[in-house]
Automatic annotation (TrEMBL):
Localization terms from the record: Cell membrane
Topological type in the membrane: Multi-pass membrane protein
GO cellular component: ATP-binding cassette (ABC) transporter complex
Cited NCBIfam families: ECF_T_CbiQ
Organism: Mycolicibacterium moriokaense
Pfam families, A to Z: CbiQ
The entry's keywords: Cell membrane, Membrane, Transmembrane, Transmembrane helix
GO biological process, alphabetically ordered: cobalt ion transport
Name of the protein this chain belongs to: Cobalt ECF transporter T component CbiQ
Gene that encodes it: cbiQ
Main localization category: membrane
Transmembrane region(s): 20-38, 44-61, 68-87, 107-127, 139-159, 238-258
Domain of life (superkingdom): Bacteria
Length: 259
């Protein structure tokens, strides 16, 4: 945990986006996602502009596509659900390559795919440019309750630890002749998952008790705001950094006006 100031999705760098105050990035993310979600799914051109905004931020943040695109596969389960909607929905139908598909299902699938993809892309952008320490400071500055902030930050910092623990447990099973691809080993894998959950729960209790013994009161210490994190954003920084989100809001408003 000595190097716990970063998290698995963080990409070390010194770009303009990295230097933006973390609370500004979080607000910008929320506003951008709300603008994307509020856009009518029947309108196609606004989503192209949103994609250009994300690509522009990636350019300023110096995040290469080969780094971020594989990490966007986290939305794959939702894409599978979207593929099924044109077949499951009712209403008017249209023939595509000899297959009759629901019009409302096609729009629903398009909305899930494009809005989910843009939301994941924006979230990964913030995650790639914000450390776990900066995240805790930002949430505190934004007035998020200390208990919620602590839970989120500790969860992020312990992802690597739990992943390593799961890897060690898997290696131990393999060294004892386990075959993960065999169906009859499903019971052993399920027991390993349960054991990992219990270990994580017990470890969490020990860490919490250790924190209490050191004076933890459920809030992020104010000292963290000046150690390894940027200073609070000025008004000029707020205006400059929120320009992508403001552009997204303007696009969403225009899409409703000319709908």
């Amino acid at each position: 945990m000595g190097a716990g100031h970063a998290h698995p999705l963080y990409r070390d760098g010194d770009s303009v986006v990295h230097r933006v105050a973390p609370e500004v990035k979080i607000v910008c993310l929320v506003v951008f996602v709300l603008a994307v979600v509020a856009t009518p799914r029947e309108m196609l051109w606004p989503f192209g502009i949103y994609a250009l905004i994300v690509l522009a931020v990636w350019r300023f943040a110096r995040i290469p596509l080969r780094w971020i695109l594989p990490r966007m596969l986290i939305e794959a389960p939702f894409l599978i659900l979207a593929v099924l909607l044109p077949f499951a929905e009712g209403g008017n139908r249209v023939e595509v390559a000899g297959v009759h598909l629901s019009v409302s299902g096609l729009y629903a699938a398009w909305g899930i795919v494009i809005k989910g993809t843009l939301g994941v892309a924006a979230s990964l952008t913030v995650a790639a440019t914000t450390t776990a320490r900066e995240l805790s400071v930002a949430l505190s500055r934004l007035g998020v309750p200390g208990t919620v902030t602590s839970m989120l930050v500790l969860m992020i910092r312990y992802i690597d630890l739990l992943a390593s623990e799961a890897g060690r447990m898997r290696q131990a099973r393999l060294s004892r002749g386990d075959s993960p691809s065999a169906i009859h080993q499903a019971g052993a894998i399920a027991k390993s998952v349960g054991a990992l959950f219990l270990r994580a729960y017990e470890r969490g209790e020990r860490v919490y008790l250790a924190m209490l013994s050191r004076g933890f009161d459920g809030t992020v210490p104010a000292l963290a705001a000046g150690v390894g994190s940027s200073a609070p954003a000025s008004v000029r920084q707020w205006v400059a950094a929120l320009m992508p989100a403001a552009a997204a809001v303007a696009v969403a408003a225009c899409s409703w006006v000319i709908r």
